[in-house]
Write a structure and sequence with these properties.
- The strands form ten sheets. Strands 12, 13, 14, 16, 18, 19 and 21 form a seven-stranded antiparallel beta sheet that branches.
- With 903 residues, the protein is α+β, with helices and mostly antiparallel strands.
- It starts with a helix and ends with a strand.
- Helix 4 (58-64) runs antiparallel to helix 13 and helix 6 (111-134) packs antiparallel against helix 15 (378-391).
- Helix content is 25%, strand content 23%.
- The radius of gyration is 29 Å and the shape is globular.
- The longest helix is centred in the N-terminal third of the chain and has 24 residues, at 111-134.
- The chain is built from 23 helices and 37 strands.
- Among the domains are: 36-65 and 204-355, Alpha-Beta Barrel (TIM Barrel); 378-465 and 636-767, Glycoside hydrolase family 3 C-terminal domain (Rossmann fold, 3-Layer(aba) Sandwich); 473-509 and 539-610, Jelly Rolls (Sandwich); 785-901, Immunoglobulin-like (Sandwich), CATH 2.60.40.
Length: 903
């Protein structure tokens, strides 16, 4: 029985109990009369929610206002956890299609494609939710309320979470964000109207409202105080657009203070701006444990009761954390807040759940009929590849690209070439068959000899436990005489390797890195194949056994990496023993002499305690060159080199605990390509062979040397499950690149403003006066485009009048391709320190060779030329002259004309 059916049955049973006469009642009600109002589908969701709230105790109300809301059995209310993620695919809930990271999707500049992607994500989310319900699961990452998208402005390239955003521009962020919300919530891409007028598909959440973009290490402490002009011109527009145009149902506050108030308990942000000025009707939640920060770190109030009361009073209905459940009842009893205020907040929350169909029979909710077969379907896999192709930005090409498939030998070198993490970024699901860059190139060029060498670690000092090659299946047998390849794995539901195994199978290699943070009952793989349904996420153990068949004689460097404990035995002798807890994947090594032609009995034991889980069995064979030398030799022997480097989600991300040179707490302390990679790139270039640089990254990198010396540079971002195929498609010309940079790439010697300074002066293309390494909106193609005939239908207008802009774009090259036509507006006589120019329109169009098309944009000065006037404390449009710029990037303007705005 599904969740809604169970709830309905329990509630009807409860209604029968309520029909028993009560003191003061003249007579008993009939069962039909006793059906509680909150189950009456003829009533409004708000009325039903209010009725349900009225039946709860104070303590029950407070508990329902936290993310992990407990069941109330007497009311037939099941447990529900509001916490779910879908940044670029359903995340942390097992199998799901993994699309490119958000920053990569922004680089596509393709809103219609984003509509398709977000709709696919919501299909998978609904199908997975129904599957969880059928299994009786109501935990974290299993619900219908998703905490995406992140629409913070990526103001500084050092921020590790910038990868989660749509870049540095408010307009691009707004358009991509609205599209993402449409797809999640089940809205028509053309009209924005709900596809089902009664039930919402999912809830999307705009986060983190509103001035929040690092540093990660200070996020629980700092007070952001931008000028009001920066606030209204940069930090708020995307949130306003998602509320007014996107009708997003939820907003998440930030950890930090804004003008002295906690962003998750701010009268100015939540009551005055969000609700009063913008008319927001949905619900607000805190970021996780942000309510605790109000009293513990920000010291705004002295007690958790005061913090909880302040947050609810100022409009935060839902607490991710436990402050509300523990302290709101006490706050009510202390007179800090009235119970009626809790009733109002909780009614909003329960109405949202009802609007998702959680309290109604599934057959009445069209979204429950989405089949599970949509999850990781071939159609979604193809869509992931398409979005990855469109997200790739060609920064430079001196003619070496596209590569010929007749190339005899290709050297694929670098730390992200064969790393699944380079595909995923952060907040991701489990892809069924992730394609690394190395694999993608090999599949695309079957006639070429593709030689791989990792060369160096991602960053200096990381001692990367994934650097040593795995022991391949051809050197492993599960037992003597077996035709199978690999080792016999016995999986136990305890950490002692005891009892009967819950699962027994043959694993071709031991190379696993399991999903972080999933609380489900199944062990779920991160990138590689997982054990399936039999073993829990935490507190398990595995024993692999069989034979090791070394191909050559000599001393091998045997390596076992684990998070947490690992032991390795050869012929009964323990050669590696590290059985303790580890914070992350940690390598242990042993030098062992082995003889070719002999079979060694091998046993590997692994235990996992809590959180992250992973284990690898690797070796370096006798006579193997040091990795750096091996890479340089591979380049010498090749016709062309593809170097895959940059960053991964292992070094940039959310409030991380790992620090390396150039990195701190998930952020970066400089924007250079890591030194390990720079040195190897220089050595590869010195061989004289053409080197194509492919960057995996979530942010801008200062690759000045590469721009000056290498013939071609691609940015692949974190390209998702089919990223390797997409990169290969571009390298070999099956896809013509047309991605555009959603962030400015700065030069290595550029002195950036202080990271913790939220003033926009000197930041992003809108306020930066210097010369960028690569400009916002930049991206090359394998063909060329010409612009002509820029015209306005009127050159002089009032602030509220619309202007149509038209321009002709022609493909003047020999290949079909996409062009991203960009429109910028520049004040010619600025009255104050406002943006130098701003993106106010873009269209991605496809043109055949010789094809010409007229592209049109609409400008309304009251919307597109407004800027905050601090004296009036309101938006205003300065009358005067503006330049209309159309071109291929913010720095590649192909045509201009003048528009005059009158008073």
């Amino acid at each position: 029985m599904g969740y809604a059916n169970k709830s309905l049955a329990v509630c009807i049973a409860a209604a029968m109990l309520w029909a028993v006469p009560k003191a003061g009642h003249a007579q008993a009600q009939t069962p039909a009369q006793a059906t509680p109002a909150y189950l009456d589908t003829t009533r409004s969701f708000e009325a039903r929610a209010a009725d349900l709230v009225s039946r709860m105790t104070l303590e029950e109300k407070a508990a329902q206002m936290q993310n992990d809301s407990p069941a109330i059995e007497r009311l037939g209310l099941p447990a529900y956890d509001w916490w779910n993620e879908a940044l670029h695919g359903v995340a942390r809930a097992g199998e799901a299609t993994v699309f490119p990271q958000a920053i990569g999707m922004a680089a596509s500049f393709d809103v219609p494609l984003m509509d398709q992607v977000s709709a696919a994500i919501s299909d998978e989310a609904r199908a997975k939710h129904q599957r969880f319900l059928a299994e009786g699961k109501h935990g974290r990452y299993q619900g219908l309320t998703f905490w995406s998208p992140n629409i913070n402005i990526f103001r500084d390239p050092r921020w590790g979470r910038g990868q989660e955003t749509y870049g540095e521009d408010p307009y691009l962020t707004s358009r991509m964000g609205i599209s993402f919300v449409r797809g999640l919530q089940g809205m028509d891409p053309a009209t924005g109207a709900p596809l089902d007028p009664h039930y919402r598909k999912l809830d999307a959440t705009a986060k983190h409202f509103a001035v929040h973009s690092g540093p990660e290490a200070d996020r629980h402490h700092f007070d952001a105080r931008p000028s009001k002009r920066d606030l209204y011109d940069t930090y708020l527009p995307a949130f306003e657009a998602l509320v007014r145009e996107g009708h997003v149902d939820a907003v998440m506050g930030a950890y930090n203070r804004v003008y002295g108030e906690s962003a998750s308990a701010s009268q100015f942000l939540l009551r005055d701006t969000l609700r009063r000025d913008w008319g927001f009707k949905g619900y607000v939640m805190s970021d996780c444990w942000a309510i605790r920060d109000i009293w513990q770190n920000h010291k705004i109030v002295a007690t958790p009761e005061e913090a909880a009361a302040l947050a609810v009073k100022n409009g935060t209905e839902l607490n991710c954390g436990s402050t509300y459940a523990k302290h709101l009842p006490v706050a009510v009893k202390q007179g800090l807040i009235g119970e009626a205020e809790l009733d109002k907040a909780l009614t909003t929350l329960l109405a949202a759940r009802m609007r998702l169909g959680m309290f109604d029979p599934p057959q009445q909710v069209k979204w429950t009929q989405i089949p599970y077969s949509v999850v990781q379907s071939p159609e979604h896999d193809a869509l992931a590849r398409k979005m990855a192709q469109e997200s790739i930005v060609l920064l430079k090409n001196d003619g070496v690209l596209p590569l010929s498939r007749d190339t005899r030998r290709i050297a694929v070198i670098g730390p992200t070439a064969d790393d699944t993490m380079a595909l995923l970024g952060n907040y991701y699901g489990t892809p069924a068959d992730p394609v690394t860059l190395l694999r993608g190139i090999r599949e695309a060029a079957p006639r070429a000899e593709v030689v791989y060498a990792r060369g160096v670690d991602l960053v200096e000092g990381r001692n990367d436990p994934t650097a040593t090659p795995l022991i391949e299946a051809q050197y492993l047998r599960p037992q003597k005489g077996s035709s199978e390849r690999g080792l016999r794995g016995e999986y136990f539901r305890n950490t002692e390797l005891s009892g009967t195994p819950a699962l027994v199978r043959v694993d071709p290699v031991i190379g696993f890195n399991w999903d972080r943070g999933s609380p489900t009952d199944n062990l779920l793989a991160r990138g590689e194949a997982g054990p399936g349904e039999a073993v829990p996420d935490d507190n398990f153990s595995i024993r692999w056994s069989g034979q090791l068949l070394p191909p050559v004689s000599g001393t091998y460097e045997l390596e076992a990496s684990a998070d947490d404990g690992v032991r390795v035995y050869l012929d009964g002798k323990r050669v590696i023993d590290r059985w303790q807890q580890a914070d992350r994947l940690t390598a242990s090594r042993a030098s062992v002499p082995l003889q070719a032609g002999r079979a060694y009995a091998i046993r590997v034991e692994y235990r996992e305690g809590e959180r992250d889980a992973g284990v690898r069995l690797a070796w370096r064979m006798p006579g193997a060159k040091p990795p750096f030398e091996e890479a340089v030799q591979a380049a010498r022997d090749a016709d062309v080199v593809v170097f895959a480097g940059g960053l991964t989600g292992d070094v940039e991300g959310e409030e991380m605990k790992v620090d390396y040179p150039g990195f701190a707490g998930g952020d970066r302390t400089d924007i250079h390509l890591p030194e390990t990679q720079r040195k190897l790139l220089e050595a590869l270039h010195a061989t004289g062979k053409p080197v194509v640089l492919v960057l995996t990254t979530g942010s801008a990198l200062a690759v000045d040397w590469a721009k000056q010396n290498l013939p071609a540079i691609l940015v692949a971002w974190y390209p998702g499950q089919r990223g390797g195929n997409a990169v290969a498609d571009v390298l070999f010309g099956d896809a013509n690149p047309a991605g555009r940079l959603p962030v400015t790439f700065y030069k290595a010697d550029e002195k950036l403003p202080a990271f913790d300074d939220y003033a926009m002066r000197g930041r992003t293309y809108r306020y930066f006066d210097g010369e960028p390494l690569f400009a916002f909106g930049h991206g090359l193609s394998y063909t060329s485009f010409a612009y002509s005939g820029l015209a306005l239908d009127r050159s002089r207008v009032g602030a509220k009048q619309a202007v149509e802009v038209s321009v002709k774009v022609k493909n003047t090259g020999a290949r079909a391709g996409d062009e991203v036509v960009q429109l910028y507006l520049k004040p010619l006589d600025p009255k104050h320190d406002r943006a130098r120019h701003e993106l106010r329109g873009f269209q991605r169009i496809h043109l055949q060779p010789g094809e010409e098309r007229s592209v049109r944009f609409a400008i309304v000065p009251a919307k597109d030329l407004r800027s905050w006037d601090e004296q009036r404390n309101a938006y205003a449009v300065d009358p005067g002259a503006y330049e209309v710029q159309v071109g291929a990037s913010s720095a590649d303007v192909r045509a201009t004309t003048r528009l005059t705005v009158t008073k």
